[in-house]
């Protein structure tokens, strides 16, 4: 996943809380840019929670969150910080999928972050050149900025720091809040700025009650899109499990994980089977790699104990060199010769000869490290 954190700095300053819900400097000293502070997603959450007056036990005194030098913390600082955290370098993307989202209150951002973590996709945050304040999005105020924009389909709010290109991406997840029953006009700005004619676009939104269908129709009618998949509305309380269930239901060609097997200085790659045993093993390996002490058995396999038992899908099969086997639910075997028995196949080592495999495994005990690629 290609998400880069830029470095911006400011000298340490002392801040105090005021009744207006902002932080004011105790001194007249203007914060100076240095290279000593790296803003992270945690800083974004801290500042957002502060601006929303959410209770917190964190001490934010001295945090360099006054990014525009106006002696207070406000939505403009939040906008600048989001841009810093999400800004990309000029390096080549590491994924063919990108999650693009616009979020004003943080609800859409939360869903997007879940999706980024699940897909390991790149990400880009749409930020308005003129940030939206609380007053700008007052639903019951017919004269507020957002209300006026939503009632005029020709409005195109300017985007701060537009992403240079989407050419390297095949799939674009597009997230936004529902404003007045539709996608915010800044989403239209984004869509009209790039070519989506050869891409798969998948909308997702957050709202208290409004559905996604109107915004989906608007999006499909606005610009040519290669394929637009049915989107999903999430509530503010939606969990990562909810997002994962939706993602797994999408008709996308999922990239198959492969097993890496490190033995001494050699690293082998194996294709995995599609069964509940492999799913459970993969979940373990997503947390951390597993090291197994293995020994010879029957002159045809190396076998060792797994840290915990896995579901069994045993059946009578014949195996050959390179096959990876789960035996009795808690033992992992690498076969270097033929055998037949009732057990579960986990996968097969790719592109290796029997002689080479035997040479790497060697004689006697061996330590093997398993991880996902």
Compose a concise summary of this entry.
This protein is an alpha+beta fold and 373 residues long. The chain has helices at 41-51, 75-86, 107-119, 145-150, 185-191, 213-222, 240-249, 276-287, 354-361, and strands at 15-17, 23-25, 97-101, 122-125, 127-128, 159-160, 171-177, 196-206, 225-228, 232-234, 258-263, 266-272, 290-297, 301-305, 315-319, 323-327, 331-335, 339-349, 366-372.
Write the layout of secondary structure elements.
Elements: E1 15-17, E2 23-25, H1 41-51, H2 75-86, E3 97-101, H3 107-119, E4 122-125, E5 127-128, H4 145-150, E6 159-160, E7 171-177, H5 185-191, E8 196-206, H6 213-222, E9 225-228, E10 232-234, H7 240-249, E11 258-263, E12 266-272, H8 276-287, E13 290-297, E14 301-305, E15 315-319, E16 323-327, E17 331-335, E18 339-349, H9 354-361, E19 366-372
Parallel strand pairs: 3-4, 3-7, 7-8, 8-9, 8-10
Antiparallel strand pairs: 1-2, 5-6, 11-12, 11-19, 12-18, 13-14, 13-19, 14-17, 15-18, 16-17, 16-18
Helix pairs in contact: 1-2, 3-7
């Amino acid at each position: 996943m290609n998400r880069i954190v830029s470095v911006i700095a400011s000298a340490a300053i002392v801040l105090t809380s005021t009744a207006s819900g902002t932080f004011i400097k105790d001194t007249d000293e203007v914060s100076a840019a240095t290279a000593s502070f790296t803003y992270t997603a945690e800083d974004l959450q801290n500042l957002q929670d502060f601006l929303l007056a959410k209770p917190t036990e964190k001490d934010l005194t001295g945090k360099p969150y006054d990014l525009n030098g106006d002696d207070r913390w406000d939505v403009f600082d939040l906008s600048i910080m989001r841009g810093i955290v999400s800004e990309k370098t000029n390096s080549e993307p590491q994924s063919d999928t990108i999650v693009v989202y616009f979020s004003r209150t943080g609800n859409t951002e939360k869903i997007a972050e879940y999706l980024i973590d699940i897909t390991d996709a790149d990400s880009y945050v749409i930020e308005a050149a003129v940030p939206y304040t609380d007053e700008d999005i007052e639903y019951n105020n017919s004269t507020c900025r957002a209300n006026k924009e939503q009632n005029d389909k020709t409005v195109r709010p300017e985007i701060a720091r537009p992403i240079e290109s989407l050419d390297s991406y095949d799939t674009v997840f597009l997230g936004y809040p529902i404003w007045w029953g539709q996608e915010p006009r800044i989403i239209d700005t984004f869509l009209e700025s790039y070519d989506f004619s050869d891409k798969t676009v998948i909308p997702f939104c957050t709202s208290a009650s409004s559905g996604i269908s109107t915004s989906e129709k608007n999006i499909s009618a606005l610009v040519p899109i290669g394929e637009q998949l049915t989107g999903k509305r999430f509530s503010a309380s939606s969990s990562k499990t909810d997002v994962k269930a939706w993602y797994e239901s999408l008709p996308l060609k999922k990239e198959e994980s492969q097993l890496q097997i490190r033995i001494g200085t050699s690293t082998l790659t194996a294709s995995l089977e599609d069964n509940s045993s492999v799913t459970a093993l993969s979940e373990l390996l997503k947390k951390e790699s597993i090291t197994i002490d293995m020994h010879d058995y029957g002159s045809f396999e190396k076998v060792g104990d797994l840290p915990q038992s896995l579901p069994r899908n045993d059946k009578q099969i014949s195996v050959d060199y390179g096959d990876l086997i789960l035996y009795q639910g808690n033992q992992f075997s690498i076969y270097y010769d033929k055998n037949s028995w009732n057990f579960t196949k986990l996968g097969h080592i790719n592109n290796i000869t029997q002689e080479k495999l035997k040479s790497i495994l060697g004689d006697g005990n061996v330590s093997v490290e398993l991880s996902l690629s």
